[in-house]
Amino acid sequence: MITIDAMMVCLDLSDVDEKLVAFSRSICERLEVRKVYFVHNIRLYELGDDFQELIGEVDLRKEVEGNITEIVAEQFGNITDHEILVREDPNTEVLLADLVKRYNVQLTLLGKKMSDKGAGTLGTKLLRILPCSVLVFPEAASFHLRKVLVPIDFTDTTIHILRFSKALADQLHLQLEIMHVYRLPTQFFPLISEKEAVRKAVQLVNGKFADLQRRYQEIAGVPYALVRAANKSIGERIALHLEKGGHDLLVLGLRGNSPLPMLNLGSVPSEIYSSDINVPLWLVYAEEAVRR
Q: Which residue windows are transmembrane per the record (predicted)?
């Protein structure tokens, strides 16, 4: 059973906040979440001297806290224990990473606007620096989860991500599908037969998956899709399969080989985050990797 001792919800006072808070309620209704922290950082240095003079004696921190309190009361209620944290720090990424460590946050919830509304650079930085799993909620995403897609790469993170995804699917009564995207060494064509190369690659990957099923019986009956990257990146193939399959949630594992989580994001999660997928993206760290 998946239990979240502490979850942090990052708010930026944009239109996404109400959806994000409502989604956090949906999570608490379906998973055991013991404490939720709603966090906003006021970056006064971005306001400029003129605007700060306009504010005058207004207690901006109190006003922001009041605004968030109203949203939380309307969209979240008292479904579980929660706290509103408003800070004034010049470095939002470092502040949030410190809060994760201070409150032992296991999951951070981030909102994400479409790419035409911003570059999303803060979100990318947070994905690299936060020492916990991250759930990204795009502004066009739905709260209703029915199907979850889990791409794997047969690295050390594969077993953890499969076990987590299976437990999540069982707990939320979701349909679970596993996929793997493979590439062929096209630089050797036509020296070798492309047809034979595809056959060999499929045979090899199916063998790896069959071995996983033998060793971990909990995934024995889970559907599995094998997709060739061909002329697209792995991230693009995942996004296409996600849309084609009508999935409502994408789960990706984050690397745990380095003691610094900021070095472990990986190219595929980074590419997926930067794209305009319209389903929540759950980026999962193995707990033992975070504790190092």
A: none
- pLDDT, averaged per 10 consecutive residues of the chain (292 residues), comes to 94 93 95 97 66 63 93 96 94 94 96 70 82 92 92 87 93 94 70 77 91 89 91 92 94 64 64 89 71 40
> Which domains does the chain carry?
3-167+249-291 (3.40.50.12370)
- pTM (2 decimals)? 0.88
pLDDT at 48: 55
Q: Which two tokens stand for residue 257?
A: 């080989």
Rounded CA-CA distance 223/214 in Å is 15
Residues linked to residue 224 through DSSP beta bridges, in sequence order: 178
Residue 292 has a pLDDT of 40
Contacts of 111 (CB under 8 A, 6+ apart): 10, 11, 12, 14, 16, 17, 19, 20, 136, 137, 138, 139
Question: What confidence score (pLDDT) does residue 255 get?
Answer: 64
For residue 270, the model assigns a pLDDT of 84
Q: Say what the alpha-carbon torsion angle 66, 3, 282, 279 is, to the nearest 10 degrees.
A: -70
